[in-house]
Amino acid sequence: MKRIILAFYLVLSCISLMNAQAPVPHGPGSVWIIPIKGDIEPFISAFIRRSSQNALAKGASTIIYEIDTFGGRVDTALQISSFIGSLKNIRTIAWVRSGPESMGVSWSAGALIALSCQDIVMSSGTSIGAAAPVTIGPDGQMAPTGEKTVSAVRSQMAALAEKNKHPVLLALAMVDQDLEVWEIQVNGENRLVNSVELENLEKNSANQVVRQNQVSAKGKLLSLTAGEALKYGLARAVADNSTELLQKLEITGEVSELVPSMADQIISVFTSGTVQTILILLGLVMLFLEINSPGFGIPGVVAIISFVTVFGLNALLGTVGSLEMILFLVGVALLAVEIFILPGFGITGISGLVLIGLSLVFSRQDFTIPNLPWQWEIFGRNVIFVSIGIILAIAAIAVIALMGPRLRIFDRLTLKTKIEGTAGGPDPEHAGTSVMEAARVMSDEVEENYGDLLGKQGKTISTLRPSGKAEFNGKTYTVEADGVFIEPNKPVEVIRVRGNRIIVRSIG
């Protein structure tokens, strides 16, 4: 019990550490720079929410989101853009920054997040755009998604641009490759128009229309350099460092530039698909060993830590609720019923595995039933990660069941001491004998030469999983199955004897 309490304490301490945010000394009127770098994944959304709320609580007047990304998950980008757009009484700025360690791009999901800010600033040599959602095909290559997803993202891009007074046509052209955008001069005034608007203006003889430049050609997604974004009114300024940015936007205040902590990096690693697959594999194998071992020991502690890590970290990302926990606990209960009560492995065990798998899949996403194509893509990816973990766990359990009796590492999981008698005295079989005689009889039984059983045939009394009871020559022994589990009342043969370990095989 002390080990269990210690394990829970350590896990909860780690989760608390991961959820902590380093204090920032600056007070009211300060300017916070929050980085959005790398693939847009759920842990970035949690980091942005926590950091932004911390900035608001400390009275910050401006938040600068430093964006440097090729893109990522559509759902996470929509969550981030929605959150930034909901911030009140604070100025939000998207800064596409260049530097020795940056990529200098705000593409795809990054462009969506940038448009959710009130102002956009870019450094020299950076670019923004190409925001059409894509999916990963069976061959591993990127391919355009369906019109339903494109339409949803296109509408959101236009809504964000309209809200923050960014050029709506530019936002649409970043998503819709069929949209043509022209820069023209109408009666001496420069404007951005699409091909339909251009045609209508040119048909009106009262207008003096001069085509200046084709900003976005049909069949191509729009991407803009820093200079082009400034020219067409998407970017407010071009700034290569924070000092220059504050001067050009006339912002005053102390600057607090955040850097993701070690805890944030740990969260990003442990919420990745690969690591969570390993944790699922480890948790299921340890759960199997714990159920098949007497008492509560190390396998149970490891299983708890594995699943607490999976569900706990995903809970920090806001993707775990009561449904996932209920499905998981019911799944574990069904597996226990299958192992302890029902022989073999049937519908109950399969149902338990399915429920556990669903709980793990749902814990990696913020929706239950996918509706949009990009939700189906995320759901499919999560099913793949979880399925790999479950399949590998089943394979590992099969290997343990087959090889366990031969592996020394599992010797500690086997009770090797034969217990005779009861806590209140000698075994009732020896009632009426003196204490000395009972002790001598028990000693003789403990020292019985099990080697004489080699080659003997008998039958099982209980299910061997792999340990259980079998009867030889009218006497009951504790035996171990060599290979697959053996059901009760099946003929078996002793094939090996190692000390007090009797290993049998089915001969039915």
From TrEMBL:
<dbReference type="Pfam" id="PF01957">
    <property type="entry name" value="NfeD"/>
</dbReference>
<keyword id="KW-1133">Transmembrane helix</keyword>
<dbReference type="InterPro" id="IPR052165">
    <property type="entry name" value="Membrane_assoc_protease"/>
</dbReference>
<keyword id="KW-0472">Membrane</keyword>
<dbReference type="InterPro" id="IPR029045">
    <property type="entry name" value="ClpP/crotonase-like_dom_sf"/>
</dbReference>
<dbReference type="InterPro" id="IPR056738">
    <property type="entry name" value="NfeD1b_N"/>
</dbReference>
<feature type="domain" description="NfeD1b N-terminal">
    <location>
        <begin position="31"/>
        <end position="190"/>
    </location>
</feature>
<dbReference type="Pfam" id="PF24961">
    <property type="entry name" value="NfeD_membrane"/>
</dbReference>
<feature type="domain" description="NfeD-like C-terminal">
    <location>
        <begin position="452"/>
        <end position="505"/>
    </location>
</feature>
<feature type="transmembrane region" description="Helical">
    <location>
        <begin position="383"/>
        <end position="403"/>
    </location>
</feature>
<dbReference type="InterPro" id="IPR056739">
    <property type="entry name" value="NfeD_membrane"/>
</dbReference>
<keyword id="KW-0812">Transmembrane</keyword>
<feature type="transmembrane region" description="Helical">
    <location>
        <begin position="344"/>
        <end position="363"/>
    </location>
</feature>
<keyword id="KW-0732">Signal</keyword>
<feature type="transmembrane region" description="Helical">
    <location>
        <begin position="296"/>
        <end position="313"/>
    </location>
</feature>
<dbReference type="GO" id="GO:0005886">
    <property type="term" value="C:plasma membrane"/>
</dbReference>
<protein>
    <submittedName>
        <fullName>Uncharacterized protein</fullName>
    </submittedName>
</protein>
<dbReference type="InterPro" id="IPR002810">
    <property type="entry name" value="NfeD-like_C"/>
</dbReference>
<feature type="transmembrane region" description="Helical">
    <location>
        <begin position="266"/>
        <end position="289"/>
    </location>
</feature>
<dbReference type="InterPro" id="IPR012340">
    <property type="entry name" value="NA-bd_OB-fold"/>
</dbReference>
<feature type="signal peptide">
    <location>
        <begin position="1"/>
        <end position="22"/>
    </location>
</feature>
<feature type="domain" description="NfeD integral membrane">
    <location>
        <begin position="274"/>
        <end position="400"/>
    </location>
</feature>
<dbReference type="Pfam" id="PF25145">
    <property type="entry name" value="NfeD1b_N"/>
</dbReference>
